[in-house]
Predict the 3D structure of the following.
Amino acid sequence: MMITNELIAEHERLARFAKAMGHPVRIAILQMLEKKACCYHGDMSDKLPIAKSTLSQHLKELKEAGLIYQETNMLPSIKYCINKENWQLAKQLFDELLIETI
């Protein structure tokens, strides 16, 4: 298999998604958002046994990876939603990786 620039970019994207998902709290956040599509910061902090500041750091990591985005309609309420396009891409890239290694 010849490694092209496109393939390298795909590997980098997969690695970024994997890094962002590399913590149990972030997995819980993604599962929560996948079920509801969107959720407010306060609602997540009520359900997850971590400090609000820690939750914010995890949300920031997922947002920087492009797996989620935030909407600020009325401060101080911040709503987080799954980025459906990138979530599908992450699933596809992980599927391809796991199928190739079997």
